[in-house]
Amino acid sequence: MQSKDDELKTRDSVSSLRELNSKLVAEIAELRKENAKIPELRREKDLLMARIVELERSAKENAENIKLRDANLDEGNAKRDAEIIELRTKIAKLEYIIEENRLKIRCEFMHPKYACIKND
């Protein structure tokens, strides 16, 4: 037979074990709740990874489009610059012809008796 002290120790031990068991059961329930979230979190991760891949593809495509646009702009700028140079050259020639004609008119007006020298 057990003594009263042994009986009390056994009861305390059983009580402690029950309390520990209760805490462990609660912890297991909490872990099960967290584990239940894992499949949904994996799905969300997969969706996010797919979105990242799509954004990277889109960014690469946009970068290529920007390069093409810049190349087209550069080509257009070069053509425009060449046209500007050509027009400035034509303007300079026309200004020269106008000035030449002014001089001829002035010469003929001031010296009608003399034939002005033609530089044609």
TrEMBL record:
Protein name, entry field: 13383_t:CDS:1
Keywords in alphabetical order: Coiled coil
Lineage top rank: taxon: Eukaryota
Coiled-coil regions, chain positions: 14-58
